[in-house]
Amino acid sequence: MKLAEALQERADIQKRLSQLRGRLLNNAKVQEGEKPVENPAELLQEMDGMILRLEELILRINMTNSATMDNGETLTALLAKRECLQKKVGLMRDFLDRASELVERSAYTEIKVHSTVSVPEKRKELDALSKDLRSLDSRIQQLNWLTELQ
To answer: Are residues 25 and 51 in the same domain?
Structure first.
């Protein structure tokens, strides 16, 4: 099994567990004399099986990520770098959106509001960071599809 397949299965299990949570909550209580629509014991057994499989996948994915090397960096390090780059890009984008907002003055005597940074310069920096992020993400995706799960 490739790492990418394990990641897809993990996402599927997480989605199914979320749906199972709703089914469990819907069948947690019934009025006296009524029966639940679904058997809670069976749902809990299904949950246990999915949790065990999820734990196995998480362990194997983490082991694979820490053992997979690309240009002297582990996949774990690349994932950490991508997550931080995503945060930085998101924060910069929000900051620059705010910094570039136009403030309308209804009267000439109102106080002028100016951006605290050169938005065009910072946009160029943001574009470069976004390009780096796309490149890193492509590198990670390629590794996911080429790497065998441990």
So the answer is: yes
Looking at the structure, tell me whether residues 27 and 93 fall in a common domain: no
In this structure, the dihedral spanned by the alpha carbons of residues 38, 44, 46 and 49, taken in order and rounded to 10 degrees, is 180
CA distances from 148 to 1, 4, 6, 16, 80 (A): 6, 9, 10, 25, 20
Q: In this predicted model, which residue has the larger pLDDT, 75 or 100?
A: 75
CB proximity list for 123: less than 8 A, separation 6 or greater: 96
Tens-digit pLDDT profile for residues 129-144: 999 999 999 999 999 9
Q: What is the DSSP letter of 74?
A: E
- In this prediction the pTM is 0.83
- Per-residue pLDDT of 20-29, as tens digits, reads 999 999 999 9
Same domain, 79 and 148: yes
Contacts of 79 (CB under 8 A, 6+ apart): 65, 140
Residue 150 DSSP class: -
